[in-house]
Predict the structure.
Amino acid sequence: MAPTLSSDMTTMRRAAVVVVALASLLAGVAAAGAVTFSATNAASSTAGGKRFGRDIGVAYSRRVLSDASSFCWKTFSQPNPGSRKPVSSVTLVVEDIGGVAFTSGNGIHLSAQYVGGYSGDIKTEAAGVLYHEVTHVWQWDGQGKANGGLIEGIADYVRLKAGYAPGHWGKPGQGDRWDQGYDVTARFLDYCDSLKPGFVAQLNAKMKGGYSDDFFAQILGKNVQQLWKDYKAKYGG
Ligand SMILES: [Zn+2]
């Protein structure tokens, strides 16, 4: 009888471990602020929509929305929901539109035409685009007063740090102005963050209530024009 009892005990211990694991999982969901993520393919009858369904899919997209949100909170040093933008859901709709993608509020719109025409690994490209757009959902915009180039630069900075910088991006040190936007500003912000790790998180936090170029000097002790000169000099520009 002893072996049976031992076996039962093992089963009970395993069951207890499963219960604890489930409880931790549920607690993890609650700690994430109960944000919901959804993805819809509203262009499934088009060639691009069909490619989305075949090569990317709504299940993968939902996972990227969730992973990218967690990555934003980490990058912005916002471990608690109270410090984040009050957003309870992030949605993605694939539509028969031009361009690449855009975000309005908590809604991301991805172009099925872009998906259909892209030559290369569309799954990785879509993930990179979604990291950029998800950043727009979570970043502060200085009450609408922030420099547009900086807003796009922060979105591409998050994409860069997540490992989704495409091969065609400019290299570090390239560009004419710090607020040129996108990859140019993302690379510059990466330089600023290397001077003081957590710089981008601090900059984003300051952008909750308004905006001034002086935020760079307040955090790094040098104004943004001087930082850009130093950055260009470092790469021989
Ligand atoms: Zn953008």
About this structure: Residues 35-138 form a domain with the Neutral Protease; domain 2 fold (CATH 1.10.390.10). The longest helix spans residues 2-31. Residues 132, 136, 152, 155 surround zinc ion (CB under 6 Å).
